Amino acid sequence: MKNHPLEGKIATVKFDSGLEFRLDFLADHKMRWTSTREADAGATDVETIHIESYPSGIFSIDWVEETGLCVSYTLDTVNHFVKSFMTFTDDSYRGGRRPFIHEGPFHFILENGEPDLAVI
């Protein structure tokens, strides 16, 4: 039995900031992100995620990385769009955390890279 509706899914994200990722939604509330930007040389990690499902194909996915980077994605799976709010340590900002917001297209794919057209 799946822990959440995205388990087993693979997605691509291309943010307006230039960041690009492949997201593998794994069992036990885990997600592997892998940078697909050439500049990042395939940087990857597995995160423990908190995920909530809302009506109309909307999902909220949140995690805290080992570095302290806090990430929150709002996925719109119907309109193939993601918005991200992140914060990281920066003493020059209020509360010692700098916010970073970016957005862009989000698409489910199959392992072979073809579009995954299955409805969630």
TrEMBL record:
It comes from the Bacteria. It holds the Pfam family MoaF_like. SUPFAM superfamilies: Lipocalins. Residues 8-92 form the MoaF-like domain. This is MoaF-like domain-containing protein.
